[in-house]
């Protein structure tokens, strides 16, 4: 009986020490990981706005208002040329077939989409993964209006249409919801 209690106590101590070490490691690395992710987003935004010379997070009060009223928007970054805002990078999240899809949408101050980039997804290979693998999908957003809801079609030609991927309906619909969330944030908060 004493041996069982002794082994149980040793196991408890090992588990407690391990949990403490893991908590400490998480506390130390969490800000570093967040900064790396933020720099990665800035890099993707820089590709969308090559003429920009600075990038700044949107004012916290405006961002909080957007997030409170929009289920998709996670972050907004301003692209600046000198002191002038030339566009916004909106990090948006939606749910696809395989889980969360996190995308970055670039919208310039003329109300046009200048970039679309999927940052994270776990969609089915060969089907939903085409939102990343098929370059024509991302290209179908470029130049589209950011002042009206976008819809997927097989042969996009109108200002509010993008490429629908056959066999990847759930993934396409998830991207549509996220992009339209970014459009909504632009129209209601950023274009003013």
TrEMBL record:
InterPro entries reported for this sequence: FMN-bd, Ion_transpt_RnfG/RsxG
Cellular-component GO terms for this entry: plasma membrane
Protein's UniProt keywords contain tRNA processing: no
Name the record gives this protein: Ion-translocating oxidoreductase complex subunit G
Membrane topology: Single-pass membrane protein
Entry EC no(s): 7.-.-.-
Family: Belongs to the RnfG family.
HAMAP family documented for this protein: RsxG_RnfG (MF_00479)
Pfam family, one: FMN_bind
UniProt keyword Acyltransferase, yes or no: no
Modification type FMN phosphoryl threonine: residues: 169
Organism: Soehngenia longivitae
Subcellular localization: Cell membrane
GO molecular function: electron transfer activity; FMN binding
Subunit structure as annotated in this protein's UniProt entry: The complex is composed of six subunits: RnfA, RnfB, RnfC, RnfD, RnfE and RnfG.
Any one of the GO BP annotations: electron transport chain
Cofactor(s), by name: FMN
PANTHER family for this protein: ION-TRANSLOCATING OXIDOREDUCTASE COMPLEX SUBUNIT G
